[in-house]
Amino acid sequence: MRIKIIVPPYVNQPLFLRMMPRSMTFFPPYGASCLASTLRNNGYSVSVEDVSLLARNLKMPPIFLDNKRELKSIVEYLRFDSPDKKIDRFANELFKYISQDGSEVIGFSIFSRLELVCALLLAKKIKENTQAKIVLGGALMTEYAALKSLQKMESILNNFKFVDFVIFGDGCVPFLALLENIKGLRPIETVPNLAYRDKANIAIREKTFYSIQDMPAPDFDGLDLDKYKAVQYEQIKNKKIEAFSKFFQLPYQLSRGCPQGCSFCDCYLTDPQIVFKDPPKVINELWHLKERYRARNFYFCECKINISYEYLERLCDGVIDNNLDIVWKATAGVNNMDRNLLEKMKAAGCYALTWDIESGSDKLLEKMNKGFSSEKARQILRLSHEIGIFNIIKLTSGFVQETDQDINMTIQFIKESAHYVEWARIFIFILTPDTPIYNRPGAYGIENIFFDLRSSLGFGRLGFDENGGLKWGEKIIQQDMSFKKIRQAVDRYILAKKPTS
Fold first, then answer.
1. Three-class SS of residue 255?
2. pLDDT tens digits, 185-225
3. pTM to 2 decimals?
4. Cα angle 241, 18, 369; round to 5
């Protein structure tokens, strides 16, 4: 049985992609490569096709998912086979990037809503041209299965008949079990973490959690890794970044979960348990990846690499003691960090950290449940810079009850921290279902939550009014103004800096 795993590209969606600057790197797919490793270890012939890489220069049509008319056209095309020349032309162009190798089962690894539209367009075209079974999986499907307030999983299977199955959670063991069912070796009701059509109903099996310790190392065989290196060079315009990007970066996961509990975050839905891989396993797998792919540059794809001070310190000791000779970057939190740990991380090869700073206003940081002050954030950035680590900060604009004073505090933070920061990314706040803010709106100063936009594509935008403050229409204007002011500050104080030697 031939298996294909597809990583779909994302559509141009300004509501989610309004950040600055865009991603600096383009990684080989991690989840799809771990799944490929599991399947190959069990004797299956598997190909991984990263359409997001292959089609990166494909000109996207003006599909904007915050436009109700565009959404309606896409849904009608997908659900009812409604003719639409623009969408059909784009779907056919995407389909050209899929090899026709007779695969009997085709899985889609979908990370976010931005990739869902292209995944569905490709799945529809594949079904029109082959008899392959279509399986959707990835972080987005895991989130959909966990949502308490919205019936997302049922919506996918009810609305898009060309989708045969949805797998949520860790997909390695469930995918193997599904293949056994397709071969007639086990009943479908015994396949864990699976949603499927059971006559006129949608059946959703109970979620089973699997130890991250049992997850295999990713298998990147078959991917043209040199193309990822080329894409990274295309995106690099900063000489300091270029110095750290002489080799493509391989993704690797150390842990799952995050104890922070930020009020705007729903990551607990996809990873409700906090678990770690044992350091000896990590060291062995990094050695294997380094030797097999001749790569020493890694990206640790964690919510926060310093969730546990003790674990990270032990891991760094292992990297140093074993002379692993790698370089790496990750996302870090201000908490659980000090000079001792930063120095050990640097000695273990850490060259860049992305910090979830979010705001320079202590009032908003408290409302976000970040657990640190703006002054503490400044101190950590200074320490990291002095130790020689490249600092990137992430900021959020237009948060609930944000005032001009809060914006000015963030601008002041940017100005005072600019010497220690080399890069910045800015996001506009989006209210997400089943987050603490959504579940307890009154405690965060909002009311009248409603769907400003909703679609069976899985995309939606929640509107709200601020208690005693802005109505939703006014809040949209305020968010745009906040974004522009913070972006201008980043331009002026961080990106316009002369590069240091």
1. strand
2. 999 999 999 999 998 888 999 889 999 999 999 999 999 88
3. 0.89
4. 90
